[in-house]
């Protein structure tokens, strides 16, 4: 039997408070990532992807700095998850396939699913660990993307 026509509808996942990990800066950045994913549409896809990838680098860099500075024991494992994500995105984008509505929806679906899975498992685990070891007021961090995220640009052929 054919898929219901609902599969043609844009795949939309709205931010919800259930995604909060209770670290204000990380939550704010996660929320913005959802906004950017939602903005992906055929007419402006490349510009939004560029903005999204830059913001992913900013967010990963900040989150990783907070993890590293706070002595998070699973830091290296978490770094690897971020790298695997970047690698998967780079693979998807490097196919060079022409953009059409289906491909945009595939990208949105992948990004939303990855974000939710990652936040609800790994970032939430960090949030709990942080609260147990450092309390509720995490400092705002402004990390400079440096060699630690150079892999992202390299994967995307920008380095
Ligand atoms: Fe993360």
UniProtKB/TrEMBL annotation:
InterPro entries: Haemerythrin_Fe_BS (IPR016131), Hemerythrin (IPR050669), Hemerythrin-like (IPR012312), Hemerythrin-like_sf (IPR035938), Hemerythrin_metal-bd (IPR012827). Residues 23-124 form the Hemerythrin-like domain. Pfam families: Hemerythrin. Keywords: Iron, Metal-binding, Oxygen transport, Transport. PROSITE patterns: HEMERYTHRINS. The keyword Plastid does not apply. One of its GO terms (molecular function) is metal ion binding. Belongs to the hemerythrin family. This is Hemerythrin. It comes from Sulfurisoma sediminicola.
């Amino acid at each position: 039997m054919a898929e219901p026509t609902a599969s043609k509808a844009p795949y939309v996942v709205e931010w919800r408070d259930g995604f909060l990990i209770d670290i204000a800066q990380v939550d704010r950045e996660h929320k913005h990532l959802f906004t950017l994913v939602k903005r992906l549409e055929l007419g402006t896809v490349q510009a939004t992807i560029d903005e999204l990838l830059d913001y992913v680098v900013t967010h990963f860099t900040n989150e990783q700095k907070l993890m590293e500075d706070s002595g998070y024991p699973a830091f290296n494992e978490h770094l690897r998850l971020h790298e695997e994500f970047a690698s998967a995105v780079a693979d998807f984008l490097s196919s060079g396939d022409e953009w059409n509505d289906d491909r945009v929806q595939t990208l949105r679906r992948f990004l939303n699913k990855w974000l939710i899975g990652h936040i609800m498992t790994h970032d939430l685990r960090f949030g709990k660990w942080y609260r147990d070891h450092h309390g509720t007021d995490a400092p705002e961090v402004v990390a400079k993307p440096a060699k630690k995220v150079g892999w992202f640009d390299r994967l995307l052929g920008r380095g």
